[in-house]
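Sample intake sheet
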Amino acid sequence: MTAGAHRHRRAASAARLVSAGTAMLTTAEVLENRELDHNILHGQWDCTRDPAVHSTTWEWDFRTPAAAWKHTHNDLHHTWTDVGGPRPRPR
């Protein structure tokens, strides 16, 4: 195998590692924002009385500050969900 082929193989391997790392980091961020942050800001963990995960003290790593998200999501979005009563349960 030539020196050029070795360089090409190493470059392709490094590119795959970078792609895999990027995919894992993206997945971790999505899971943190969707599952952890969303539920904390909804107040679902307030019953623990732990200030580290309380909806009034939690700040997240997201474009929108927690206070602005809580207003638009909890006050504006949830004001208009289930207006006609509970949604029918899927069968």
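Comment: Residues 3-77 form one domain. The chain has one domain: 3-77.
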